[in-house]
């Protein structure tokens, strides 16, 4: 059976409280009963010993007489039957049982009170015999009779009954208090979760603009609320990137296909002669489509970039210098100065081919977005256990709104999509994934119109 979280929490809290209170109540009741019975037994023994000692003091061995009035008053006060015999068995004093029977059998309220206490038997009459000692010698026998195991009084039973009632009232009050607290706690915990569930349902239905404004005193619920907002923000950004990617891809494919269609129709209709220059233009458009297809295929590499790493230890300084030299002819076409500031003797353990791919993507981007007569610098330094590679340019830079998304797949900051800078927007995403696969980090700092700095940190 499936029940709501609030009910489940309330029931769990209540059961825990009930079990705790019952356990405490049972143990407390048993201990109180045991201790109270020990107290009654001790008091009873003290009273019996006191009357036995008193009779011994009042007994006159010369004439065998005893002060009966004093003993009668004590017997009536303590609800005892007292009988004294001399050493020959003759009864010299008897208190009588009428008042004792009346108190023990006729007082119904007392009987009911006594029956509520397990080991105290109100209907059982008990007699005990004690020696009558005088001057260190036994001069007779004392018989003491009473009702009940400990000859308890109404005050004794009333006190014990009050304790039990207090325990029952306390238990009931604790249960009521626990029920209220469990209800409040369950609501405090379940209500925010119900709201977050509704927000998740809204997100599932496509409303990615919804956000959670839940503030709770529970740390985990606040974290969950923040995570839901982060998830909504991420999904919203991904949705924006997906729509932009679809638009970009459609544009990238439609443009060369339209150009090819126009050229071929003109040649087929005899308007154009199939000259080398026109065929060359058709070939360039086909190359653009091929490049786009390669970018799409690189998606698989992006997802599996942590696989197939073939690491080896090599001189990072020397490899970077060779990579820079290989790019200088390309940069010279746009009269861009490509400079390297390389600290020597830095060795690293990584996939050599992946380093070339990382630098190829960064330098290609710098080339695309740096105008003629610009400058691109590559710096290599060592900081503690990290190799720091910086690629700086003074090109067009990146707008502040594009920086958070620059490493997302298919994201392009250049919405103009001109041929010189055109691409699928996957190069930096692959670069970030390759750097992460080696346990490194990549960051970007940029100002629109002033240039960009890409920083790669690789563990040595």
UniProtKB/TrEMBL annotation:
Keywords: ATP-binding, Cell membrane, Kinase, Membrane, Nucleotide-binding, Phosphoprotein, Transferase, Transmembrane, Transmembrane helix, Two-component regulatory system. Residues 187-240 form the HAMP domain. InterPro entries: HAMP_dom, HATPase_C_sf, HATPase_dom, His_kinase_dom, HisK_dim/P_dom, HisK_dim/P_sf, HssS/ArlS-like, Sig_transdc_His_kin-like_C. It is found in: Cell membrane. One of its GO terms (cellular component) is plasma membrane. Coiled coil: none annotated. Residues 248-460 form the Histidine kinase domain. GO terms for molecular function: ATP binding; phosphorelay sensor kinase activity. The keyword Lipoprotein does not apply. It holds the Pfam family HATPase_c. PROSITE patterns: HAMP (PS50885), HIS_KIN (PS50109). It is a multi-pass membrane protein. The chain crosses the membrane at residues 12-32, 166-185. Its EC number is 2.7.13.3. It catalyses: ATP + protein L-histidine = ADP + protein N-phospho-L-histidine. This is histidine kinase. Its main location: membrane. The keyword Membrane applies.
């Amino acid at each position: 059976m499936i029940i709501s979280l609030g009910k489940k929490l309330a029931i769990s809290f209540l059961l825990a409280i009930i079990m705790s209170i019952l356990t405490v109540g049972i143990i407390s009741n048993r201990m109180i009963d045991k201790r109270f019975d020990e107290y009654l037994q001790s008091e009873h023994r003290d009273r019996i010993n006191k009357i036995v000692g008193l009779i011994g003091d009042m007994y006159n061995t010369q004439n065998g007489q005893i002060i009966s009035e004093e003993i009668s008053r004590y017997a009536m006060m303590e609800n005892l039957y007292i009988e004294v015999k001399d050493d020959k068995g003759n009864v010299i004093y008897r208190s009588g049982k009428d008042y004792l029977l009346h108190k023990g059998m006729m007082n119904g309220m007392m009987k009911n009170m006594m029956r509520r206490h397990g080991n105290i038997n109100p209907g059982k009459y008990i007699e005990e015999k004690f020696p009558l000692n005088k001057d260190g010698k036994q001069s007779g026998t004392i018989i003491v009779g009473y009702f009940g195991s400990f000859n308890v009084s109404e005050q004794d039973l009333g006190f014990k009954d009050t304790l039990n009632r207090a325990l029952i009232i306390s238990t009931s009050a604790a249960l009521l208090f626990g029920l209220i607290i469990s209800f409040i706690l369950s609501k405090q915990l379940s209500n925010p979760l119900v709201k977050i569930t509704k927000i998740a349902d809204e997100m599932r239905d496509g409303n990615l603009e919804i956000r959670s404004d839940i503030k709770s005193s529970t740390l985990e619920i606040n974290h969950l609320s923040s995570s839901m907002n982060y998830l909504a923000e991420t999904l919203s950004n991904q949705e924006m990137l997906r729509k932009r990617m679809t638009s970009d891809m459609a544009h990238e494919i439609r443009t060369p296909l339209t150009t090819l269609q126009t050229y071929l129709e003109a040649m087929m209709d005899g308007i154009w002669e199939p000259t080398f220059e026109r065929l060359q233009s058709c070939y360039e458009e086909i190359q653009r489509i091929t490049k786009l297809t390669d970018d799409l295929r690189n998606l698989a590499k992006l997802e599996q970039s942590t696989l197939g790493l073939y690491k080896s230890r090599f001189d990072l300084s020397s490899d970077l210098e060779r990579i820079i030299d290989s790019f200088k002819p390309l940069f010279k076409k746009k009269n861009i100065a490509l400079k390297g500031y390389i600290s020597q003797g830095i060795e690293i353990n990584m996939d050599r081919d992946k380093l070339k791919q990382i630098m190829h993507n960064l330098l290609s981007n710098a080339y695309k977005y740096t105008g003629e007569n610009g400058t691109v610098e590559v710096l290599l330094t060592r900081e503690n256990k990290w190799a720091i590679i910086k690629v700086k340019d003074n090109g067009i830079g990146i707008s502040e709104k594009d920086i958070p998304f620059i490493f997302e797949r298919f994201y392009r900051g250049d919405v103009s999509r001109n041929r010189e800078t055109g691409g699928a927007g996957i190069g930096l995403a692959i670069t970030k994934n390759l750097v992460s696969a080696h346990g490194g980090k990549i960051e970007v700092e940029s100002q629109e119109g002033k240039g960009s700095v890409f920083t790669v940190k690789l563990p040595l």
